[in-house]
């Protein structure tokens, strides 16, 4: 039986700036990654997002990013592994405070944006992130790009890992995501994205921009919550997966 988790990045509003369709998208995903205030989010938004997810029965994870509100955490920063460790511990702790106060628990941690992509290639950085998660709570699941250094680091330190794939992103032949700075980084057509998601789950393959198949493992599929059509996209992907006899459910 094909089973997959469907996750979404949420809680990315802050102050007077509103982003995403958080409440509505929660009806279509099984896990959420909540911004922890560095790349997006603020204390009030974190609390509200935790409350909404708990009401919907959706599993919750921390989404730690680089300290880069202006760039939404998508700009590379030359940080040392120790700095990465510190900011991940800090952000997990911030979200965990809201979870505990609301009677919930944390399922996973998924680094955000540039931190995620940097760690996917950098062994020292990925190990620092994995160790930060492990030392906070050994039961947390590390979400990382399928086949990446981040997944290998999580396994090395003893964490449970979930290999993540992206329905709406294109891939390079080395298994990395196409940079957002390049053309064709995103799949704009819902049908194409759904077909890619189904193939990744059922066949463990994705077609790269270079025209070759890339092998991967699909434990969880990311649905971005900040897109203009995020809600309809989430609906379409979930419905397409289920019509293809793929069960959508969380890990726990």
UniProtKB/TrEMBL annotation:
Molecular function terms, GO-annotated: 5-oxoprolinase (ATP-hydrolyzing) activity; ATP binding
Catalysed reaction equations from the record: 5-oxo-L-proline + ATP + 2 H2O = L-glutamate + ADP + phosphate + H(+)
UniProt GO BP: carbohydrate metabolic process
UniProt keywords, alphabetically: ATP-binding, Hydrolase, Nucleotide-binding
EC numbers for this chain: 3.5.2.9
Enzyme class, first EC level, given as a word: hydrolase
Pfam families: LamB_YcsF (PF03746)
UniProt cross-references to InterPro entries, sorted A to Z: Glyco_hydro/deAcase_b/a-brl, LamB/YcsF/PxpA-like
Subunit structure: Forms a complex composed of PxpA, PxpB and PxpC.
Function statement: Catalyzes the cleavage of 5-oxoproline to form L-glutamate coupled to the hydrolysis of ATP to ADP and inorganic phosphate.
Record family assignment: Belongs to the LamB/PxpA family.
Protein name: 5-oxoprolinase subunit A
């Amino acid at each position: 039986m094909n089973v997959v988790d469907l996750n979404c990045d949420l809680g990315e509003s802050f102050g007077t700036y509103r982003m995403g369709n958080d409440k509505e998208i929660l009806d279509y995903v099984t896990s959420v990654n909540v911004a922890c205030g560095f790349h997006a989010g603020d204390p009030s938004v974190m609390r509200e997002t935790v409350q909404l997810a708990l009401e919907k029965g959706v599993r919750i994870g921390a989404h730690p990013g680089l300290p880069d509100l202006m760039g939404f955490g998508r700009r590379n920063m030359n940080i040392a592994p120790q700095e990465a460790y510190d900011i991940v511990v800090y952000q997990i702790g911030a979200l965990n405070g809201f979870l505990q106060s609301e009677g919930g628990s944390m399922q996973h941690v998924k680094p955000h944006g540039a931190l995620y992509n940097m760690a996917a290639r950098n062994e020292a950085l990925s190990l620092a992130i994995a160790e930060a998660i492990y030392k906070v709570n050994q039961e947390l699941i590390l979400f990382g790009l399928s086949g990446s250094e981040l997944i290998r680091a999580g396994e090395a330190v003893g964490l449970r890992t979930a290999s993540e794939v992206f329905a709406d992103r294109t891939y390079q032949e080395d298994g990395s995501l196409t940079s957002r700075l390049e053309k064709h980084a995103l799949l704009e057509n819902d049908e194409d994205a759904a077909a890619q998601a189904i193939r990744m789950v059922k066949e463990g393959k994705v077609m790269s921009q270079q025209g070759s198949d890339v092998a991967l493992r699909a434990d969880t599929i990311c649905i971005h919550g900040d897109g203009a059509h995020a809600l309809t996209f989430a609906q379409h992907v979930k419905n397409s997966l289920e019509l293809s006899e793929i069960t959508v459910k969380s890990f726990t």
